[in-house]
Structures are given as structure tokens and as C-alpha cells.
Design a protein that fits this description.
Blueprint: E1 5-6, E2 9-10, H1 11-19, H2 29-36, E3 46-50, H3 56-64, E4 68-73, H4 76-88, E5 95-99, E6 112-117, H5 126-133, E7 137-150, H6 157-166, E8 171-172, H7 173-182, E9 185-192, H8 195-216, H9 221-240, E10 244-253
Parallel strand pairs: 3-4, 3-6, 4-5, 6-7, 7-8
Antiparallel strand pairs: 1-2, 7-10, 9-10
Helix pairs in contact: 2-3, 8-9
The structure holds S-adenosyl-L-homocysteine (SAH).
S-adenosyl-L-homocysteine is lined by residues 15, 23-25, 27, 51-53, 56-57, 72-75, 78, 101-103, 118-120, 123-124.
């Protein structure tokens, strides 16, 4: 898996860049909690956090539930960091990071009460992920994901092209809610993430990191290209943010 590519860049290089940051995608503790408020908390004993990265949202779930949590990511470096944080917080008895694929889950059918996934489901596909993950949830269990979504019906060609290359399945919230329903969940709630989840929590911390990463990899063309791509992502957001963003989708298994 180490040499897999995401948007033309080496998976391991992208993760080396992002793992030093607190978050690897747009989000915030407040929005994680808002999503959690739609879930029946006392019923939670087993949670899986898929594509957990270094675990920003995992720690919020650990703080606000009593459940045991398995946090899974393909990138071992992120899991190591997550498990150090788990040890620091003395949560080893109920929180564990494991290396694995969200497309090949190591759980039993109906084992989980809640599947969480922030900024990661596009790696398997929104519809495909929701359909595949469903069997691991007990009846009445929940799924909660953030996913890139169009906020408007029509978009400038520049941003349409960017997202068609990055996440060809990107769609409107209305259509995604319908896909969730068809995949066998009652759509319980959906809401959009505020801009600060992108600007303050995702793009701003990358500014210094880009400089540092360029220095660490001086003369490497692949890294220069990747850093231009990351900068462009931030510039495009500034110009076109009324057209897209992340939405949280919370569903309950029927
Ligand atoms: N949830 C974190 C990380 C989001 S970035 C946050 O919001 O901060 C997306 C993560 O998905 C990365 O850590 C990447 O390594 C992971 N990932 C990509 N493809 C994956 C797959 N097939 N299975 C599991 N994790 C995957």
C-alpha cells in the first residue's frame, strides 16, 4: 500500500506531510460534538473511527463517550502517533489505534454501535463505504461521516474541474442524503461545517508546515509539486467556498 498514489502523489509522502499536523482534514472538536449530539449516547459500547489519521476526532469521542473505540488508518505513522496520545491520556483500556483498510474491516457483523469517519470516506467512495460498513453495525446503530459536498447547483468551471479530478463522485447534500437512505440508513441529521474548520483548522496550520516540508525535502520535485497543490487547494477554497465544503451526514441503521 506504501506506493499507492492519491491525486498523483505518493500516499506515504502525503501522510508524512500531514501526520505532523493536528488534523489531516477540515473539522473541529465542536463539530464532532455537534454530530455526536444526534447519536443515542447511552447505547454506545463499541465505536470504530475509520481513516482516523492521528486521531483528533478519536480523542473527542473518547472524552465524551464511555465506549471502547477502535481507530483505524492505512498509514502506520499516524497510528503510532495516535497510540502515543492514547497512552499519554491513559486510555489504553478502551481506545486502540490499528493499521488497516476501511475497505476490509476486521470486525464481526453487527459488532459496532457507531461508525465514525471524518474526511476519509472519499477514499473508498461515499455510497460504497456506507453500503459496505452497514453490516458491521447492529440494528439501530449509527454512522457519522464528513464528506466533500456541493452547496450550489452550478459552479464555476475551475472549481468543478478541481473536484472532478479529486473526488469524481462529489455531489449535493440532497443527493448524498438520498444515497444514505438507499444504502439502508435513516438520515438522522446533516449539517455543513463552518468555514473556520477549513481556514483556521486545516489551511492555516499548513502554511508553516509547507515551508518546513520543502526544507526537509530540498530539491525534490515531487515535494515541490505537492506543496503547490496544497497551496492551490487553499487558494481555491478562498475564491469558491460558497460552492462547496464538508457536510456531516448522520444515519441510523434500519
Ligand atoms: N480523520 C482524520 C484524518 C482525515 S485524512 C482527520 O479528520 O483529521 C484521511 C485519512 O484516511 C488519512 O489518514 C489516510 O491515511 C486515511 N486513508 C486513506 N485511505 C484509507 C483506507 N483505504 N483505509 C483506511 N484509511 C485510509
Amino acid at each position: 500500500m506504501e506506493d499507492a498514489r492519491v491525486q498523483g502523489f505518493e500516499f506515504s509522502l502525503i501522510n508524512e506531510y500531514f501526520t505532523e499536523l493536528e488534523r489531516q482534514g477540515p473539522g473541529s472538536a465542536e463539530e464532532t460534538l455537534r454530530a455526536l449530539s444526534f447519536v443515542d449516547l447511552p447505547s454506545l459500547t463499541r465505536i470504530a473511527d475509520l481513516g482516523c489519521g492521528t486521531g483528533a476526532q478519536t480523542m473527542v469521542l473518547a472524552q465524551y463517550t464511555d465506549a471502547s473505540i477502535t481507530a483505524l488508518d492505512l498509514y502506520a505513522g499516524s497510528i503510532d502517533k495516535l497510540n502515543s496520545e492514547v497512552a499519554k491520556r491513559c486510555l489504553q483500556n478502551r481506545v486502540k489505534g490499528i493499521v488497516g483498510s476501511m475497505g476490509e474491516l476486521p470486525f464481526e457483523d453487527e459488532e459496532l454501535d457507531l461508525i465514525w469517519s471524518e474526511g476519509a470516506i472519499s477514499n473508498i467512495g461515499f455510497e460504497k463505504g456506507l453500503r459496505y460498513w452497514r453490516r458491521f453495525l447492529r440494528k439501530g446503530g449509527y454512522v457519522a461521516v464528513t464528506y466533500e459536498s456541493w452547496f450550489t447547483e452550478e459552479r464555476p468551471a475551475e472549481i468543478e474541474k478541481w473536484w472532478m479530478d479529486a473526488v469524481p463522485e462529489i455531489s449535493t447534500i440532497a443527493r448524498n442524503v438520498s444515497l444514505m437512505q438507499k444504502a439502508g440508513y435513516v438520515p438522522v441529521a446533516t449539517f455543513t461545517l463552518p468555514e473556520s474548520c477549513w481556514t483556521d483548522n486545516y489551511f492555516a496550520p499548513q502554511e508553516a508546515r509547507r515551508e518546513e516540508f520543502l526544507q526537509q525535502h530540498a530539491g525534490e520535485k515531487a515535494v515541490e509539486d505537492m506543496m503547490s497543490f496544497m497551496k492551490r487547494e487553499a487558494d481555491l477554497y478562498e475564491r469558491h467556498k460558497e460552492h462547496y465544503g464538508y457536510a456531516f451526514y448522520i444515519g441510523k441503521k434500519l
